[in-house]
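ok so heres the complex, two chains, lmk if somethin looks off
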Amino acid sequence: MLYILTALKCEAAALSGLPGKIIITGAGGLCPDALKELDLTPQDKVLNIGISGSKRETGSAYIASSVSMEGKKKLYPDIALWQKLPVSELVTVTEVKKEMSDDLLYDMEGYLIAEWALKVIPPSSVCLLKIVSDSGKEFPSKQEITDLVRSHLTEIKVIAEHMSLEERPCGYTCLAEDVTEQLRLTEYMRNELCDLMHYARVSDKEDVLLGVIDGLRRSGRIPCKSKKEGRQILDEILSSLR
Amino acid sequence: MRYSAVYVEKKAEDYPLTKSILDKLQDIRIISVDHYKDIFDRKRQDIAFQKENPALILAVREGRRIYKGASVCQSFGNRNFYYASSVMNCPFDCEYCYLKGMYLSGHIVVFVNTSDYVSDVKESLKEGPLYICASYDSDLCALDGLTGLASFWADLARDNEDLLVELRTKAAPSSFRSIPNLIYAFTISPEEIIERYERNTAPLSARLDSANRALDAGCRVRLCFDPLIKTDDFEDIYGRLMDTVSSAIDFSRLTDVSVGTFRISGDYLTRMRRAYPDSEIAWYPYVIKDKVAQYRQADDKAMQDFVELRLEGLIGKEKIFKWNE
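and the predicted structre for the whole thing:
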């Protein structure tokens, strides 16, 4: 699942037609409460889209190459080749920043989101996309924010589509649970069988595995009477796949 | 090769090699980092993603730079067998590569403090002659256009006659340095294995052409039939490989050859399986012996014997080295 997180409703208002689930987290300190509600899994992706303060040109968009927050370790999401936007360091602050460094972007949620996400998912599954809205002096209206985000919808779409591509599988099961029960395997042997099933699938040898099981069943050796018999059968399956 | 970004460690900024590499990479995103491990050693990295979106990390190597050769590697009869890690990770993407289980990241780290490697080698040479495999943790020949590190090790060999350097490659370099104590080692695999498992590497014909160019330039050349990969049609594809190689290469001109079946540390294999759930090689049901995952002894022997027998008709037995001898 791709989670697209924005702090503000007016940011989310621009994000039509994107794959993934849009979540409005609330700004700054409100963000962690919203994140707690999400049950992130290792296969999920997180795309944070929002406005930022900077001395850079208003309306320009950046991918965060790093995100930092006072007193915390700097975090680095991975950069993908298909992310065509320029990169910039992002600093998350707790109060609106009036004085800004030349090359930095400032927001109020990025670090909180990255820190939360990176506890579960890889750095390549996190992307923080920030659009410069102001330099800390004059602030845009809600409509202006929506327009700013909308002006980068094409780039945002490319990133969201890449991030929502099909997940790679983590495991395979091709034997019915009753077969593994009938083999009377110990937990260790059961894990061995799981690895063998995985190998059979990725090497396109599932037919071989199922054929061996079928033959053993027809010859009456499955169900097994003991763990020792289960071990022998597991060894036969191993030999047939090696 | 395209890189998604270049991370430059602050300490590495002023090194000439950093400047030379950055000069060659125009229009690339450059990101300054305090320490290369801030990127390379992050938790939960997706190596498969990073192999497709590789970043380059320029850093200073502190601490150990030269290591004792591992038991799964071949010393070719040399006593002081070491390997040097001047680059971590490889521009190629071989499905069976142990680096995928060894490192937490798929990004490539280039260590730019070459002068420290010179000092280390000179210090180690005080103990006696040294055999260093400089291209185990990367393919320095493939990266030479960018880093110049294959040339660096060639220079080091030229300047230190007690230092024997091996540069192993799956690329097809076109220029060579004829130095008596420098060996160009070409990994030789069947075309079917290259296409299926050695992504982005040079085709077999290009490797053989390159090996011939090295021989013509008067260089020492080693052919490495390593790793041999078990397939259902092993004898067919490796038989054809031996036919191709024996007709392309004059074996009497070779320094030696090596033969070795695929093997990998059991710990690395565990990580590789996690990173590559679809890899047939990672998930093969290996035997773990002495903490090394390897083929069943009978398979291992049959595969090595098959290739060795073909080699014995081409080169003296004393010039054939096997990993588990």
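quick notes: The two ends of chain A are 36 Å apart (CA to CA). thats all i got rn
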